[in-house]
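OP here, attaching both records as promised.
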Amino acid sequence: MNLESDVTYSIKEYKYGKLAFINESDKSYFFKENSTYQEYINDEFKKNYRPKSNILDVGSNVGIFSVSFANIAKDCTIHSFEAVKITRELLEVSKNLSQADNIKIYDFGLSEKNCTSIINIDPNRLGNSSISQDFSNLGGAIKEEINLKKLDD
């Protein structure tokens, strides 16, 4: 799958699959000293998930937890919510490269009401995207209109 945004990305293979990144700062943040980002979450997930259940990953970023959970719990469905277009495209690449067919990707964020909002995207660390924090002082900050929906609709 090619990114719609014509962005060059690199792949990081880790013990649960493969992840797509557009910058080295994101990649190095997730994989410091060859260890997996917040591996203790995966350890707890292994102990506590219920087989054949639905798992929500809200703000999925490039898929580090979605891909991990999909590999650990192959009989579960991982519902990955990522509202930011470029990040969602990287998530889609990560899903496909990892052959994680049990991940379902949603193109909106979750909220208390159905609406649109402007999200501020830190181009140096996509996972820092925020509706409430403005990154204009970083230079190159991006604003994007995103859809938000209630989970129970």
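Record two, same layout:
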Amino acid sequence: MNSPETRGQILGELAKAIQMQSQAEAVKELANKILADYESNDIDLRITRGPITGVVTAQVVDPLSRHRFLPGDILVSEAGVEVDGEVGWGMCFGNDRAGALAIAICDAEIARDRRFASEVRSLATECASARAKQRESDFENLRPTIVEFEEIS
């Protein structure tokens, strides 16, 4: 598993983490820690967007025909913040406005490259590793159900 390096990759990992209960709590706890630091150092955080819940239209490319189609809408939560002129943004699947706001706060911390930026990066890496292990475990559970077909030449 490669570590998320860019701001977009880190945000993606945090958004995926919000979907898993134990990881969601870790993201929200880190955001609360960052907020406490802002408060104790008189740093202003301004919410610029939301947090709101809405829908985005999913677009899929059919792998056979290569045509795009719209299978439906996806429920998402979004939030935006500004800290000392740096903008943070977060979006996650589902109705989790607190999760979206936590991601936005973590994003602003990365943008400012402050005290907790390395902790945000580490959390994103941990979440990615945990998801990879979960996928491996899920695949191992499915392995006995895989049907191998013989090829006839």
